[in-house]
Every structure is written in structure tokens, then in C-alpha cells.
Amino acid sequence: MQSTSGSFYPEVQGAEGSPVARRSLELNTENERVRESHRRSFGAARPQDKLAAMDPHVVELVKDFRFEAAHYLPNVPEGHKCRRMHGHSFRGEIAVRGPIDAHTAWLIDFADLKRVIDPLVARLDHYLLNEIEGLANPTSEALAVWIWKQISPSLPLLVRVTIEETCTTRCSYFGERRAASRER
Ligand SMILES: [Zn+2]
């Protein structure tokens, strides 16, 4: 179905053609557009990409994950909306970077990323984040760092953890070493 004309859903009938259903489809399309733009922008903006450009055998693998959770931010000013308990459909990414193995022709098995992130998602999904040890003030920033600390020991090639609270807001953490190198 084309999206270039004004009649985006010309054949939609009945309940599926209701304004709510149409808005939902439009939002899904918008979400995909934002995510694609996010993926593209990440590819070019970071210093490590210069290294990747110099070595054709260096690749980055990304694993997406999702979870639903409640949180509140206890340290924001009185009256700030985030001080009230509320929920998000969180989306996240973990990324690893390194050379392609000459024999397997991959960096690591995608299943290895899934094995690392799945147990963590189980600890977060449908919980109140503030009650999880280390997440008393669960901002996106704190959550990204917390996830990094949980998984980096078993993922030495980890280069990025990204957390999206909404489809238009996200936070990426690149680890202590990269943060320190930017300060120099
Ligand atoms: Zn929130």
C-alpha cells in the first residue's frame, strides 16, 4: 500500500477504518520511521565508526529488546509529571563490535546476545523499576548504565546500551572507557 497519496487506507472498511485504528497504524509507521532514522544516525556519528571504515572486517551487531515497566523519578522537582508513578513500553538495544571471524564469517552468534539480555528483561518486565536493587532513581540514563554493568562481564565486545522510554526519546551509554576518553 502506498503512503504517498492522501488516501493511505483506501480499502480499509468497518472497525479497522475507524479514526482510532487509522491513528494506530499511522503511529506504527511513524515508530518504524523514527527507529530507522535512529539506526542510520548511529552508524555515522561515533568516533569508532572511523575505525570501522578503515577496517572492512569490523562489524557491529545489535540486538533489540522490549519490556513494560512502571517507574517514578523521586529526585525531580515537586509537581514534575515524572514524579508520579507511570509506565512505559521500554525498548532497548545492545550493540557489540569487532572483527568478522574468518571461519564462521560472523562476529558472534546473535543467540549469544539473546542469551545475555533475556534474563535481564525477565527481571525488568512488569516490575516497578524503583524496587530493583540499583534502580532507586530509574531514569533512562540510570537504566542504560545498570544494564551495561549487568551484561558487560559476559559481553566483552559490548560498545553500546540504548534505552528508549518513548518512540521519540532515547539514551545511549557507551561505557566508562569511552566517556573517559572524550574528556581528554
Ligand atoms: Zn517515565
Task: Please describe what this structure looks like.
By secondary structure, the chain is an alpha+beta fold. It has 2 domains: 10-45; 47-183, Tetrahydropterin Synthase, Chain A. It has helices at residues 19-45, 48-54, 110-124, 140-151, 176-183; strands at 58-71, 86-99, 158-166, 169-173. The longest helix has 27 residues, at 19-45. The structure holds zinc ion. Zinc ion binds at residues 71, 82, 86, 88, 165.
Q: Which ligands occur here?
A: zinc ion
Major sheet attributes:
4 strands, antiparallel
Q: What's the mean pLDDT score?
A: 79
Task: Work out the count of structural domains.
Answer: 2
Helical amount = 25-40%
Q: Largest beta sheet: what is the strand line-up?
A: 1-2-3-4
- Backbone structural class: alpha+beta
Helix-strand pattern: HHEEHHEEH
CATH superfamily of the largest domain: 6-pyruvoyl tetrahydropterin synthase/QueD
Architecture blueprint of SSEs:
Blueprint: H1 19-45, H2 48-54, E1 58-71, E2 86-99, H3 110-124, H4 140-151, E3 158-166, E4 169-173, H5 176-183
Antiparallel strand pairs: 1-2, 2-3, 3-4
List keywords for this structure.
2 domains; 4-stranded antiparallel β-sheet; disordered N terminus; 38% helix; Tetrahydropterin Synthase, Chain A; elongated; 184 residues
